């Protein structure tokens, strides 16, 4: 769900805030993703330092979650970052056309917001071909139409 503003992520004169995909805690929900194992005290410290700067300073919070590993079915504890609904940058739900328009116009130091969404959809298809993220793929479809009409 694209409910978090990227407003605070970058500063630039040519900047227009957009939306980023956000994990939102919801009972009986799940997300498919990749779990990274970091070993060694210094590596762990560096990983958390990087995440702290990139995620926590942008309104996310660390949450320990239970993760079921796809290959083995084992359940482990892992850490992830979740944006709380009280986050100052939380935009909430919007009509898919409104989201597509906001994302099409948005741009930060990392580039156009629409590129982020299109690349995310591409990676989800490559990494998790069994997933049918209707929201993401509908947003991708509408963005491709908007971008094509813009060029």
UniProtKB/TrEMBL annotation:
**Which Gene Ontology molecular function entries are recorded, alphabetically?**
glutathione specific gamma-glutamylcyclotransferase activity
Q: What is this protein called?
A: ChaC-like protein
* Listed PANTHER family: CATION TRANSPORT PROTEIN CHAC-RELATED (PTHR12192), GLUTATHIONE-SPECIFIC GAMMA-GLUTAMYLCYCLOTRANSFERASE 1 (PTHR12192:SF26)
Q: Which GO biological-process labels does this protein carry? A: glutathione catabolic process
Give the matching InterPro entries: ChaC
Superkingdom of this protein's organism = Eukaryota
Sorted alphabetically, the Gene Ontology cellular component annotations on this record are:
cytoplasm
